[in-house]
Amino acid sequence: MPDTEEIARDSVVPPDVRRQAVNWLVELQSDIVTDETRDQWQKWRMSHPDHEYAWQQVEVFSRKLRGLPSPLAHAALTPPHSSSRRRAIKALTVLIFLGGGTWVAGEGRLWCWWPEDYCTGIGEHRAVTLSDGTGIELNSGSAITVNFDDTRRLIRLMNGEIMVTTAPDPRLANGIGAARPLLIETAQGILRAIGTRFTVRQFDVSQQGKSSVAVFEGAVEIQPITGRLRQLEVGQQAAFTRDGVIAVGMACEADTAWRQGMIVARDMPLIDFLAELGRHRSGWLSCDPAVAQLKVTGTYPLADIGKILAILQKTLPIDVQLFTRYWIRVGARQEDT
């Protein structure tokens, strides 16, 4: 259940901030998003905690709309500043903040619309077993939908990250017919599991539309929406966009430490470390460019992020500034004069 402070916060987010958040969501759906637009969007998010809170809600909601007819698609295709776009944004704002029940969903909680959905809130992890025996572990802030039919076993990763441990299709064992492929769909393409254990991550729109996969057993085929098929073998990982595979490297088991409630860093830039921490807490965790490349090494329990930040402040030349419960800034340490 959301606490009293959370409910009070939800009820006072100004309507104009909600509309601004939806407008930014629409802008970022455009086929051409400039660096200037992204910079302006980031500045808007950082300018007030209400902005960040509203953005988190509409971004999670947008994942639920992927592949469905919606005002989001209509708004993104209409000319900027047109009356039709203004009407579409108004409809989206009502859908998200009134019809969607976003503001009573609880802190960081994704909501499920279909019986097959599995979700985790911010800071929550969950393990489930699907009807075919496939195991799914969901990282913080993740959501999937499941659609098994006579021809395929399809899992859509709507948001976040999952670990998949495949199981043989029980239909084959029962002599019902040919084995159905196990497929994982993201916004950038479809993965086909080949007797495997692997992770899949769907990055958000702020990270320029990509997914990643790391293979720990077996193999996985990557089929980007418009790119060429690529197969990853055990021990490999890759990122991919709609147009193709963009990076192939070595898979690292330490990257799955979230399954044990940990984060493992080895000479990780501070800005990347904070980005990973930010996946496990509600609000905005920003990093001053002046300290962004400081290196972080160690194993940290995610149960107490405040303690992690306190440790970093003791071991690195940084100050951690807490503006509100939802807005923390990490910057260079100010020397006493």
Automatic annotation (TrEMBL):
Which spans of this chain does the record mark as coiled coil?
A: none
Q: Which residues form the FecR protein domain?
A: 117-221
Q: Which residues form the FecR N-terminal domain?
A: 19-59
Care to name a GO molecular-function term for this sequence? sigma factor antagonist activity
List UniProt keywords, sorted A-Z.
Membrane, Transmembrane
Q: Which domain of life is it from?
A: Bacteria
Keyword Transmembrane in the entry? The reply is: yes
Can you name this protein? Putative transmembrane sensor
Species source reads Nitrosomonas europaea (strain ATCC 19718 / CIP 103999 / KCTC 2705 / NBRC 14298)
